[in-house]
Each structure stands twice: as C-alpha cells, then as structure tokens.
Amino acid sequence: MAAKIRKIVVTVDETRIEMGKQINPPTRRAVAVAVIENPYAGKYVESLDDLIAAGEELGGLLGEKCVKALGIQPSQAESYGKAAIVGEAGELEHAAAILHPKLGAPLRKAIEKGAALVPSSKKMGGVGAAIDVPLGHKDAAYVRTHFDAVEARVSDAPRANEIVVAVAVTDSGRPLPRVGGLTKDEIKGEDGLR
After folding, report:
1. pTM for the full model?
2. Can you list the positions of beta strands (E) in 119-161?
3. 158: nearest Cα among 69, 38, 60, 30
C-alpha cells in the first residue's frame, strides 16, 4: 500500500546571526512533513504492515525533499531526525510502525550513508499540534555540535484519522557550538557512535 498523502510541507530554517555574531556560513535545517491517512484509525489491528510500508516510502521521499530544499548534494547532509504525530483516532504504536522498522534505510540513501541511529520522537496530538524533531549527526552519534531539534507543525493536521510524519536534515550543526566533545572533523565512521 502506498501512503495516502493529503499534504506535504517543506520548510528551511536558516540562522545568520546568533547573539550578535555573524554565522558564516549560516546554519540550515530543513524539515519535510507529510500528512497521511491513518488506515488503522478507529480500530485495533494486530499487524501494522501498511504503516511500516508507508514509513519506507516516506523516508526516501521526505529525505530527498530536505536535501533539495537545502540545495546540497546528499553527501553534504550532516544531521538528521524523524518524528510523527498521530491523530486522536489512532494510537502511538502507529507512529512507531512508520518511524522504526523501515523509514531509516531510504532516508540514509537520500543523504548518503548515515551510520548513526536516526533520532526520533512521537506523540498523539490534534490539529495544529507541534513536535520537536530531534537531530543528531548522521554518521557519529557522539558529535555534540549536532545535538539539536527543529519544530514541525502543520496548521490543519493531524485530523483524527491522520498522521503527520516529519523528517529533518541539516547541512551543519548548531550555531556557535562550544561545549566540547567529538567534532565532525574527528569522526572515524566505524560504528555510528564516533
């Protein structure tokens, strides 16, 4: 089953000045959000295969939209994250079915590599609900400069029978990072951690 997508929203957040300091190049975070119909709204089903398949489809689609919005090559992506909001006729496990089993592989393909776990969040919510999409470096989870989050929201979603699915991709870490730890230049890329 292909995801029944009602709407896609793509935004780019670009920070140019932070605490009076010029950020050059600016830090940029793209978020691509799909509002999809929840095929299991209002009923309990044991197998969530349709949502797992939807997650696989959306991982690549939304990842590619983020890369395009940033105007970068896939290899230039630095961090990523994913999140979902389930409308009131669904259940939290519906978000887990979209986000966890199969969304990651096509997202990694869209940004080239991605050895680290994709940070995620999920919740139940009504129309206009916001969710913070957690961010982490795509190849090394211990790179502190890329610990961040970006908000995702669609003004008319999720309706009771919908799910909002968000993917975020950046071309940089936080502006003015200075809390130490592993830097992106020190990544070994062996285990997704360092």
Report:
1. 0.95
2. 120-124, 130-137, 148-153
3. 38
